[in-house]
Design goal:
The two termini are 32 Å apart. The protein contains six helices and eleven strands. The strands form two sheets. Strands 3, 4, 6, 7, 9 and 10 form a six-stranded mixed sheet that branches. A five-stranded mixed sheet has the order 8-5-1-2-11, with helices on one face. It has one domain: Coagulation Factor XIII, Chain A, domain 1, CATH 2.70.50. By secondary structure, it is α+β, with helices and mostly antiparallel strands. One of its GO terms (cellular component) is extracellular region. This is AA9 family lytic polysaccharide monooxygenase. Its EC number is 1.14.99.56. It comes from Exidia glandulosa HHB12029. Pfam families: AA9 (PF03443).
Amino acid sequence: MKSATLNHYSLLFLAVTGMTHAHGTIDIFTADGVAYAGPESMDVDPESLPSDSPVRQIYTLEPILSTATDLASPNMTCGPAPASSAPATASVTAGSTISFHYRSGNNGVWPHDVGPVITYMYRCTSETCMPAAGEEGWFKIDQQGMDEKGIWAQTAMMHNESINVVVPSTVPDGDYLVRHEVIALQNAVNRGQAEFYISCTQVHVKGGSIGSGSLDGVEMVAFPGGYAEDDPGLFVPDLYDHDGKVFPYAFPGPVVLGVSLAVAVASPSPSSRVPSTVSTATVATRTAPAPSSTSVLSSCIRPKQSNSRAPVQQQRLIQGRLNPASLRHT
């Protein structure tokens, strides 16, 4: 009990000190070998969103909490008051792996290492591709929790690594939103204090099924509306009672597409994973060219970009190039 208490306070200390580095958002989204840069700032400013970015802008890095009020807020859809659309759409092949890299507000690495990473998709039904209030159209394609050593998926983010997610091969062709959801649990021993960091990316899926039949019967939820304040995965009073060991964390929300259980299980530890690099990544345009063999450093300089921004984008794209195997629940 004593060690659990010490662990509790040490992690709370890390949580508070992590605040000084600012919370974060998506820095790089990678699909089909192409790296797309996210927003450069948190202000809803057209100049801060790269013209070839599929990541929708948000206005603040502050988290959405798991209070009943916040969970009922429209901010749960795609993050805090996101832009209605992004300038570009990323091409994604069904069955392929996409990855996303997070940064903190000062262009540093992600500051939290306790909690899951969950990914949803929504099939667009309108030109704006924004779900209507109460529309149950989000289906879960991935959830990553702890490995067999009790290490959370967010630890990889703190190590400046990207999170990998496989797009189901059965997803029908068409336009989608990919909803990235990071849940920081360091304060979730208190009701309403889990922290959500949510972002949406516009993608066009190709190479999947034709028609919508493959989604028939798939469990879907609405955001807001998909979570409740007392969900076991959001209010975890015994979070620090396990001495850092694996425990049966219950993911919030529906089951993963094609999976029957929504409970964390052991998966390969970070130390056993072999990193790979997107050495052929290029910065995408709206109609992304095929990746070339150009090095990451030289290929990350965006055309028509001012000299003041190029070094920042260059650094961020290099930061996001590591894409190791994920801590995925299967």
